[in-house]
Amino acid sequence: MSPRDDHAQSRTREGGWHAGPALLAAYAGGRAGPTDSWSVEMHLVSCAVCRAELALVLPARERADLSLVRGRVLAAPASSVTGAGLTVWVRARWLLRPAALVAALVAVLVGAGVDQLAGVGGSGDGPAGGVLLLLAPALPLAGVALCSVGAGDPWGEAVLATPSAGLRLTLWRTLAVLVLAVPAAAVAGLVLGGSGPVLWLLPCLALTALALAGGTVVALERAAAVLAGAWVVLVASPAVVGAGGEQVGALRALVASATQAQVFAPGAQLAWAVTVVVATGLLVHRRAGYEHLLVTRQGGGLV
Amino acid sequence: MSTHDDSSGRGTGAGAGVGAGSGEGVQVCGLSVVLGRGRRARRAVSDLDLDLGVGVHGLLGPNGAGKTTLMRVLATVVPATHGQVRMLGLDVSEARERREVRRRLGYLPQTFGYYPRFTVEEFVTYFAWLKEVSGPGSGAAVARAIERVGLGDRAKDRMKTLSGGMLRRAGLAQALVNEPEVLLLDEPTAGLDPEQRLDFRALLRELGVDTTVVVSTHLVEDVASACTRVSVLDTGRLVRSCTREELANLADDHSEPDGSARPGHEHASPIELGYSALLRSHREHAAELEEPRG
């Protein structure tokens, strides 16, 4: 205790300072000067002993009022936002984009349905495979297009400025589409009596890898759309031209041409395999393309 | 008076970090950005130096001055064609360092749409996830960001029901959710009504206490009320980097010889006058440089 001044802070045995009772009483009564008030407040923040002392020197009514206010502040929700936070389900939904998965599944079902109705595919007298066979390699393209992180996203620019942006997120979403679409198409093909994924797996992977590689140059959606269009032209145009208008005939001819088509021939399979490797190499080499906006390459009018 | 002394005196050796902002904030050295390729190639930013530490910095300039391109480079979404950009002491051209910068960055782009099915809360939570704000604190971080922009009562509303000003505030919440050390806001006051604008400027001043805030704007009032420093850009070049007061003082240097204001400028604020005087002298200077070449 300092004998000189009641207002002074007292030194404890541990060497720390505590506010004396007189100083606390002056502070509680609003009689302490600005400098003293300031230092007492600074000290109170870190000292539970003095906070307890202060409570004792307060008039009973003020103590009751303050305790009421404290209770209310603590009882009130900190925010009207509940902030459910990041549940596992929410994370999975954002990582995998269920819409892309649903789109791929719907495409499989539609392909299988058309095969069934038209009597093409393995079960009919037509050649094995059917529309599903034609559709299967291009299926992931639809999913990949929906996976895009960037161009088609209204908040793409802000998303790009986050650490999760770039190829990683797109790859996760693409992988999810592949893991779902490939088995679904394979099962559907087998159920319908077709030949399973042996014929179309390599073209499927090649188109996916090409789309992702293309995504480093143009928007991923655009790359996927161009490839899907090229695929349709590749497998369908000779048959449609040859059938001359009659719809089921055109479909059968289309399926026939596709099954015997060069695109599934052993030689072509080798080419698809090479394409997978080359496109993957390109993708790895140019992966920085997923890190930035495409305006620099498209010469967009944005300044 | 030279309009270039400020920029040439600073910004050298940004690799080592210069000025007060060493190791934090933003250092730009000799930045040029060319957009497009071949015949459509256009230089949006030319040989620009900047060194920004903690505080609110205004990027002021007419439309087409290169403000948005500069903001995009700082946001790491457009690469520098030439020159070096260091943020928080890290080199953004290195993938690993860029990722670390992105963790500590907040960015509100000039243009954006909305995810129609997302609520405000889901939207901000989505960005918390993208920014790797994880763990039990993420819910509180989201709530805090939404409260800070004054959208607490609309947190459960779908984004398609929000007005333009509210959408921009939701965008601001997204930028704030990771408590960024560098906050980049591109034309953030567009679409806000006058009262919201005042609230927003108060928030800016609060953020500027411990954050490097860069605000691009063409509104001089934004600079006058919220920014401590101003960098004026024109045609992709840095015209001048100075304090708000220095910009206002320029008005006196450029008034008519008899001390009166220029015709039509009688009601302009000192900062507006300083800004327009600065642009005028920069353009005259640039025209003088052009002439000998024909």
What structural category characterises the helix and strand content of chain B? Answer: alpha/beta
Mean pLDDT of chain B: 83
Strand content of chain B: 15-25%
Major beta sheet summary of chain B: 6 strands, mixed
> What string, H for helix and E for strand, traces the elements of chain B in order?
HEEEHEEHEHHHEHEHEEHH
Largest sheet of chain A: 2 strands, antiparallel
Structural write-up:
- The complex is a heterodimer of chains A (303) and B (294).
- Chain A is mostly helical.
- Helix content of chain A is 65%, strand content 1%.
- Chain A is built from 15 helices and 2 strands.
- Chain A has helices at residues 21-28, 34-46, 48-57, 60-75, 88-96, 98-118, 130-135, 139-147, 156-160, 167-191, 201-214, 220-243, 247-259, 266-285, 295-298, and strands at 10-11, 17-18.
- Chain A has a two-stranded antiparallel sheet with strand order 1-2.
- In chain A, helix 8 runs antiparallel to helix 10 (167-191).
- Chain A is elongated, with a radius of gyration of 35 Å.
- Chain B has 294 residues and is an alpha/beta fold.
- Chain B has 10 helices and 10 strands.
- In chain B, the strands form 2 sheets. Chain B has a 6-stranded mixed sheet, with helices on both faces. A 4-stranded antiparallel sheet of chain B has the order 2-1-4-5, covered by helices on one side.
- In chain B, helix 4 (120-130) packs across helix 5, helix 4 (120-130) runs parallel beside helix 6 and helix 9 crosses helix 10 (270-290).
- Chain B is globular, with a radius of gyration of 20 Å.
- The two termini of chain B are 25 Å apart.
- Chains A and B meet through helix 5, helix 9 and helix 15 of A and strand 1, helix 2, helix 3, strand 6 and helix 4 of B.
